[in-house]
Structures are given as structure tokens and as C-alpha cells.
Design brief:
By secondary structure, this protein is α/β, with parallel strands linked by helices. The chain folds into two domains: about 45 residues, no CATH class; about 80 residues. It is built from four helices and five strands. A three-stranded parallel beta sheet has the order 2-1-3, covered by helices on one side. Strands 4-5 form a two-stranded antiparallel sheet. α3 crosses α4.
Length: about 170
């Protein structure tokens, strides 16, 4: 019996002990350099090797060709609430939102902060997000630049059984 407690919460969760041990070793001595990973310069050769290896691992795992650039960004999923509209929503277009909980509400808020056009195609706010909108309740705008939906609402416990049909953008 171990004294470790397993965390199965949304977000960070339990990791295998060998993974934790490897991370612990890297904190003290990254790639045999004698310096811990959090002490290395982000402009140094050790960091370059680690980043290049991580990029290649991503390419191999996901089958991403060299014609695409892989970005390593901080901020987690919530950062994407602003990054997506900054990159995919021209000022003259509208983004449609299927608002099914806190995460999609935050996404709408970020688009509004950027001063971009938002259309709420469906929302479950009136029923405190206790269900996913039915197909007949979704009213898309004409030619949205994209449609945002949160597939798994960890706070309200709802999840799309299947992705809804979306209009061509």
C-alpha cells in the first residue's frame, strides 16, 4: 500500500511514479548537464535540445509534418479563449458560441474584450446549464468565422454526446 493519494479531478491528475521520478531528476540535473531544468537559460543549448526533442515527439505522436509550426504556449486552455479570436476572427466577421457553462461564458467574454463580434447561437443559462441545447435550439449567424463549443463542461457535468452540425464558414 502506498501513501500516495490519486487525484482524478478535472485538470491536473495522477501521474505514474516513473514520470514523477524523471521530472524530479530533471529539476536537479537536466539531460546530464549538472544544472536543473528550471535553472537553465531559455537561450542555451540544453534548452534547445529539450525543446527540439519535445517538438519532434509532438510531430511523431500526432503525425504533424514539417510544413506546420508547433508552438509551445503558456496559459493553458483558458488562454485559447483570446488566442483563437485573435488569430481566426477578422474584425468584420462574427464568431458563434454555444454557451453551455462557465468555460464558454469565459470564451464569449474574451471575444468581447477584443471588441470582436459575438453571436450566441444557443445558451443553457436560463436552466443553469443543466443540459446541452437540442439541435433545434441552435440558431447560427450567417457565415460565422468559427463556432465555439465546450465539449465537456466539467463544472456543470454536461457533455455533448456528438458534435452539432455547424454551418460552413
Amino acid at each position: 500500500m502506498t501513501d500516495r493519494i490519486f487525484n482524478f479531478s478535472a485538470g491536473p491528475a495522477v501521474l505514474p511514479e516513473p514520470v514523477l521520478k524523471k521530472a524530479q531528476e530533471a529539476i536537479w540535473n537536466a539531460s546530464g548537464s549538472g544544472i536543473g531544468i528550471i535553472e537553465h537559460s531559455h537561450r542555451g543549448k540544453v534548452f534547445d535540445r529539450i525543446r527540439d526533442e519535445a517538438e519532434q515527439d509532438c510531430r511523431d505522436l500526432a503525425g504533424i509534418s514539417s510544413e506546420y509550426t508547433i508552438l509551445f504556449l503558456q496559459g493553458g486552455a483558458s488562454l485559447q479563449f483570446s488566442m483563437v479570436p485573435m488569430n481566426l476572427l477578422p474584425p468584420d466577421r462574427t464568431a458563434d458560441f454555444l454557451v453551455t457553462g462557465v468555460w464558454s461564458q469565459k470564451a464569449v467574454k474574451e471575444v468581447k474584450v477584443l471588441g470582436r463580434k459575438v453571436h450566441v447561437a444557443a445558451t443553457g443559462e436560463a436552466s443553469n446549464f443543466d443540459r446541452i441545447p437540442a439541435a433545434g435550439e441552435i440558431k447560427y449567424s450567417d457565415r460565422p468565422a468559427y463556432v465555439h463549443l465546450t465539449t465537456n463542461n466539467t463544472i456543470y457535468g454536461t457533455q455533448w454526446a456528438a458534435e452539432p452540425a455547424v454551418p460552413a464558414g
